[in-house]
Amino acid sequence: MKTVRTNSTFSNLARIHADGENITQADLSSIAYVVLNADDGTTYNAGGSVTVSAAVFDTLQTDGRWTVDDTGYNFRHDVPHTIITAVGQYVFKYTFTLSGGSQFVTTAEVQAVNVTTPI
Fold first, then answer.
1. Which residue pairs from 88-91 have beta carbons closer than 8 angstroms and sit at least 24 positions apart in sequence?
2. Coil, strand, or helix at residue 86?
3. Are strands 10-14 and 17-18 parallel, antiparallel or unpaired?
4. 93: part of which helix (H) or strand (E)?
5. Are 32 and 95 in contact (CB under 8 A)?
6. What are phi and psi of 91, to 5 degrees?
7. Fewest Cβ atoms closer than 10 Å to its Cβ: which of 8, 20, 28, 53?
8. Domains present along the chain, CATH in parentheses
9. pTM recorded for the entire structure
10. Under 8 Å between Cβ of 50 and 38
């Protein structure tokens, strides 16, 4: 689980596959998200859409943001500072719609701490 500060911008990173292959921009027609309270699954923030061309990379990225492995990520959602405004545990639920119409879901969990708390 990633720790973030309330009222702050942060990025959710992931390596996303569809049908066993890394996704590319051409594979997707849309990405939507909602933010849920981790404790009870209720909606914390209605979220919205993520621009495919801004969030999906056709090649894996291995910049300093990615510390999971040496392979890299192909999805980056730069979360606006207005999305997480309260301390708590949250689940970002992303729904990816493929160009052919089928969908799949992935999640990212975050722990939000007060903006003045050291991380």
1. 88/37, 88/38, 88/39, 88/44, 88/112, 89/1, 89/37, 89/38, 89/39, 90/35, 90/36, 90/37, 90/38, 90/44, 91/35, 91/36, 91/37, 91/38, 91/41
2. coil
3. unpaired
4. strand 88-98
5. yes
6. -120, 120
7. 20
8. 2-113 (2.60.40.10)
9. 0.93
10. no
Look up residue 67 and give its two tokens. Answer: 């510390």
CA 117 – CA 78 distance, rounded (Å): 21
Show Cβ contacts of residue 64 under 8 Å, excluding neighbours closer than 6 positions: none
**Per-residue pLDDT for the chain (119 aa), expressed as one digit of tens each?**
899 999 999 999 999 999 899 999 999 999 999 999 999 999 999 999 999 999 999 999 999 999 999 999 999 999 999 999 999 999 999 999 999 999 999 999 999 999 787 77
Tokens 């979360």 belong to residue: 79
Is residue 79 within 8 A of residue 11, CB to CB? The reply is yes
